[in-house]
Amino acid sequence: MTQDHHPPTDSLLDFVAEDESIVALKLGQDPTLSMADRWQILIVDDEQDVHAVTAFALNNYIYMNRRLHFISAFNEAEARAQLSASPNIALVLLDVVMSTPDAGLKVVKFIREDLNNQQIQIILRTGQPGDIPEEQMVKHYNVNDYKLKTELTREKLFSAVTLALRSFQQMRDLADLNFKLCTANNQLAVFNTQLQGMIDARTSELQQQSQNLTEALQDKTNLLRIVAHDLRNYLTIAKWSSELATRAESAELNAKHLAKVSWAIDKQSELINKVVSLEAVRSGKQVLNCQSESLSEILKIAAETFEQRLKEKGLGLEVHWHCPGGVQVWVDRVIFSNSVINNVVSNAIKFSHEGDIIRIDVQPLPEGNVCISVRDQGIGIPDSVMQALFGFEVQTSRTGTKGERGTGFGMPIAKLLLEKMDGSIAVKSKVMTKGSDDHGTEVMVTVMSPKAS
What we know:
alpha/beta; Rossmann fold; Heat Shock Protein 90; five-stranded parallel beta sheet; five-stranded mixed beta sheet; 12 helices; rod-shaped
């Protein structure tokens, strides 16, 4: 584009016009410095002379120990191409009017919106200031400076370029700082996540330890309940037998009762030893001594254990076998006999009335297991008690038909020990009501047979 007016004598164009040979020079290029050591300046103008004059005027320019490297574009399309190919351009010296009156403004829009580059400094240069006034240009377009070509002397050009490069470097430094800050924040977030993971893992570990300690304490409590519950039966037998021995009418009867006392004491010692073993099982130091045992022998011991109590309450005990031959079960004999069968039979005696029959049915199951059902015609179990029957949290002890008292933890203990032998226990009950004969409780104990194990 050719200007119609004559520039002042100190203008950049006047200075260059003194020697037209400089149009062909590529000045400002120091061969000892790489492109990375130079400020990249894009000159966008449709006049060849403007490119040459600008390069010549800034030939010896150095800022922050770095020289300039010039890139030329003569129209909007070339400017777009150079901007896309050279991401490190620091400054664009941009002509407003080229092939179209707003070509330079389109380049501004391309830089700020399409490339989303806010760091590049843009100095608009125009030879026709009347088209877009400076105030409107700075207000409505995202440019850093607006200069008339006629006022750009070498000194003013130096000043404009210096301010632009300083702003560019400050923005670049700020971006680098922001990047480092984001990186540090990301690293801190990763560290926090790792730290939180460590805290969560340690918290989980401590919670597990706390739970283990709670369970261990509960197991200790259960063991004490087992001792208290089962020893009571044998102490009662020893007491009754000793009292009967003192009232015996013959030496033979006296010897029989004393033998019962001795038997009860032996059973107490056996039970205490087994409780010690059970604690070893709980702690993992020992396993339950499950083996094939004769169920008829276990039930025979139960009948002998409660012989006196059955007589005192006027109760009958019947055992019905629904399978041929002897039945073997896979259990720890002492624990199963004392803490399961004896406990269930004791409850049936406790809640039965004089003249009642306690019935034990032994039935094989399809899976090869064995079900021992203990059924009484007693007072039954209320729903409120049934709901808490197998829990240690609430004591479910009730007074028997003759004022008997228990610990209330017999059934939870039986369930706990049965599960350790891969067995199970279930209860059905109907509460005794006035005028109805349909009442009582049935406890179903399921254990493994040797074949099923």
